[in-house]
Amino acid sequence: MMARTVDPFVEALRSWDGEEAVVRFDAGTGTWMFVCVHSTVLGPAAGGTRMKVYADPADALRDGLRLAAAMTSKNAIAGLPLGGGKAVLAVPETPTGERRRELLLRYGELVEALGGTYVTACDMNTSERDMDVVAERTRHVMGRSVEGGGSGSSAPSTAVGVFHGIRAALRHAFGSDALAGRRVVVQGVGAVGSALARLLAEAGAELVVSDVVPDRAQTIARELGAAVVPAEEALAIPCDVLSPCATGGVLNRETIPRLRCRIVAGAANNQLGEPADAERLAERGILYAPDYVVNAGGIIHLASLELLGEDEATRDGRLRGIGDTLAECFRRAEAEGISPGAAAERMVAERLAAGRG
Ligand code: NAI
C-alpha cells in the first residue's frame, strides 16, 4: 500500500498549540490570507500583517503560526491585556495601486468577520497607509496614519523601550545604569536605530553606528558625533553594549564567538539563529536581553494609545516597565541558574497561567 502523504497545512496546524487559523484565498489577486490566532487568554490576539512572496502557501502558514505564538509571549510579558496573533498575506507578487487597495479592503472584511478576536497592525511590507485602507472595513486595526486617526509611527516608542532595556542591563551587569563612558554599538540606524542613537548620545554614551546603507550611518554619526564602522565589522567591535537594530538571526554559532561586548540589547526581531544561541551567549558571559522583551515598545505604543485609550504619560510608564521586566528577568535567570531567555519564558508561562486561572 502506498504511504499517504500528509498535507503540509494539516501538518503545520497539528503541531501548533494555538487556538485557530483562518484561511481565505483571494482569487482576485491570487493571495493566500492566513490569520493566526495563537492565544486570546489575556485578551484579543494582537499582531501585525505581514505581506510577502513565499515559494509555497504552506511556508506562509508556518511563518504566521510561529509569529503569532511569538506575539503571545511579547504581549504577555509586556503586561498588555492582549493575546497573540499574526496575519500573513502571501502574495504572488507585491501588489500596488488599486490592486493593493482592493486586496486590503477584502482583507479588512476578513478581520472584521472575526469580530475582534484578532486585532491587526503594520508589519513587514505593510504601512500606516495600508492600515488606513484596512480600517475602511474593520474597527479591529491599529497603526493607522495620524491623518487616518492612528497614533503615528511606533518606532520612537520602540527606541525608548530599548533604551530602558539597555539601562536595566547596565544596572545588572555593572551596578550602575549610567551611560556616560559606556561604549554602545548600534547595528542598523533606520527608524528605530537612529532614534535610539539619539537617546544614547543624549545620555552621554560613546556611540558607534553601522548600517549597510553607509550614507545613513554617516548622517547620524555627523549629527551625534558618533564613530562609524563598516556593517561587516559591527559585531566584533569591543564595546559594553551591542544593540542589533537591523535584521534577525545576527546572533548565531558563527557570530557569537566573535562578539566583544558585555551586553546585547536591541530592537531587531528574532535575533537568535536558534534557541541554543541563548546558552552560547550565557557561556561567553554576555548578558542577553531577550528580543521580544526589550523591543515591545512598538506594540505598547499602539495598544496603549489606540486600543486602551491611554494618554502619552501612561504609555511612557508602560515603556519604562520594559526596564523593570528585564531587571526581573535577569534576577530570575541568576537565581535559577538559567539564561534570561529561559527566565522570560517562565514569566510568560506564569502570566498565561494566571490569565487562565
Ligand atoms: P528600518 O528598516 O527602518 O531600519 C533597519 C536598518 O537596518 C536600515 O537602515 C537598514 O539599512 C539596516 N540594515 C539592514 N541590514 C543590516 C546589516 N546587516 N548591518 C547593518 N545595518 C543593516 O527598520 P526599523 O523599523 O528601524 O526596525 C529595526 C528592527 O527592529 C527590525 O528588525 C524590526 O523588525 C524590529 N522592530 C521594529 C519595531 C518598530 O516599531 N519599528 C518594533 C519591534 C521590532
Your description of this structure?
- The chain is α/β, with parallel strands linked by helices.
- It starts with 7 loop residues before the first helix and ends with a helix.
- Helix 3 crosses helix 4 (128-134) and helix 5 runs parallel beside helix 11.
- Strands 1, 2, 3, 4, 5 and 6 form a six-stranded mixed sheet that branches.
- The model has no long low-confidence stretch (mean pLDDT 96).
- It is globular, with a radius of gyration of 20 Å.
- It has helices spanning 8-14, 57-77, 97-113, 128-134, 155-174, 191-202, 214-224, 276-283, 291-294, 297-307, 312-336, 340-356, and strands at residues 20-26, 31-39, 45-46, 49-52, 83-90, 118-119, 183-187, 206-210, 227-228, 239-244, 261-264, 287-288.
- 45% of the residues lie in helices and 16% in strands.
- The site of 1,4-dihydronicotinamide adenine dinucleotide has 24 residues, from helix 5 and helix 6.
- 1,4-dihydronicotinamide adenine dinucleotide is lined by residues 154-155, 158, 187-193, 210-213, 216, 231, 245-247, 267-269, 295, 298.
User: Separation of termini?
Assistant: 48 Å
> What is the average of the pLDDT values?
96
Strand segment count: 12
Question: Whole-number radius of gyration?
Answer: 20 Å
What ligands does this structure carry?
1,4-dihydronicotinamide adenine dinucleotide
